[in-house]
Amino acid sequence: MTDRSFKEQDGAEGSPRGTAVPPRTGSDAPHLRGERSEDFCQAKASLGTEALKSLGPLELAYVGDAVFELLVRTRLARHGARVGELHRAAVAYVSAPAQAAAVERLLPLLTDEELRVYHRGRNAHVHGCPAGCTVSQYHAATALEALFGYLWLSGERERAGALFEALAEGRDAT
Question: Structure pTM?
Answer without folding.
Answer: 0.71
